[in-house]
Amino acid sequence: MARPIEVWMSPPGPNPWKVVVVLEELGVPYEIKPIRFEDIKKSPFIDVNPNGRAPAIIDPNTNLTLWESGAIILYLIEQYDTQKKLTFESLREKNLLNQWLMFQMSGQGPYFGQCGWFNVLHPEKLPSAIERYSNEVKRVLGVLDQSLHGKQWLVGDKCTYADLSFVTWNDRMDMVLGVPDSKPLKEFPNVEAWHNRMISRKSFRKAMEIREKMMDEQGLMPNGMPKGVNNMAEYEDKMKQEEGN
Q1: Angle at alpha carbon of residue 172, lines to 167 and 174, rounded to 5°
Q2: Looking at the DSSP assignment, which residues form a beta bridge with residue 65?
Q3: Does residue 178 carry a pLDDT above 70?
Q4: Most distant CA pair in the chain: distance in Å?
Q5: What is the pLDDT of residue 74?
Q6: CB-count exposure of residue 61 (10 Å: 0-12, 13-18, 19+)
Q7: Contact status, residue 106 vs residue 99, Cβ threshold 8 Å
Q8: In the chain, how many H helices and how many E strands?
Q9: Do residues 164 and 198 make contact, with C-beta atoms less than 8 angstroms apart?
Q10: How far apart are CA 70 and CA 18, in angstroms?
Q11: What residues pair up with 30 in beta bridges, in sequence order?
């Protein structure tokens, strides 16, 4: 039996949970090593990932330490998806899956992250930055919506790692755009239906249950800020006060 893979993460961000969802889908045992956000640039985490970004994994079965969520997902698929549950055998489908994963990593993740920063976390409202990244979010969603027309999944006839790589960021759309909207994807009906199919999966529900528990244990709100803190400036002041005590 495989030994549990260590998943090092800070729970607020969407990227670590992409990895957890894939692990749950594949039934691979894992153990979460939680790190507080303020400790992400300190040992022991930077000894695992010198870039100081979550997630990272240590796989004792292959003696491999790996960081960057996309690289981790590709590794898990290659090493553990022996039944091709989340991938395909053929050259065409395999490369299309990689195409969509790269789009998630270069398009969705960075633009959604910047949009969330300027809409919610940045202490000063910068209209030009908010407009730029909000438009980029809508552009990315438009690409997905058009590509999903008449289809349930991005590639082939089943949910794959390419689909699942998008789900955790899309699930944070209310935070990204800074609007208390129960249906933030309503302008993109194909994306909304696709997203609903994924969040109904057992793997995603389990990941979010774990996240909610970890966030509560670390005293964090859903947007990643400590309870009672409204923006990054207040958060930095709070950390300075705690370091001074």
Answers
A1: 135
A2: 58
A3: no
A4: 59
A5: 98
A6: middle
A7: no
A8: 11, 4
A9: yes
A10: 9
A11: 5
Whole-number pLDDT of residue 3: 97
- In the chain, % of residues over pLDDT 70: 92
Residue reference for tokens 């290659």: 78
What's residue 228's pLDDT? 78
What are the structure tokens assigned to 126, written together? 């910068």
DSSP helix/strand/coil, 245: coil
Among 122, 54, 194, 223, which residue's Cα sits nearest to residue 132? 122
User: pLDDT higher for 211 or 118?
Assistant: 211
DSSP letters spanning 60-118: TTTTEEEESHHHHHHHHHHHH-TT-SSS-SSHHHHHHHHHHHHHIIIIIHHHHHHHHII
Q: For residue 226, report the phi and psi dihedrals to the nearest 5 degrees.
A: -60, 150
Cβ–Cβ under 8 Å, residues 177 and 186: no
For residue 97 the two structure tokens come to 């899956």
Contact (Cβ atoms closer than 8 angstroms) between residue 57 and residue 65:
yes
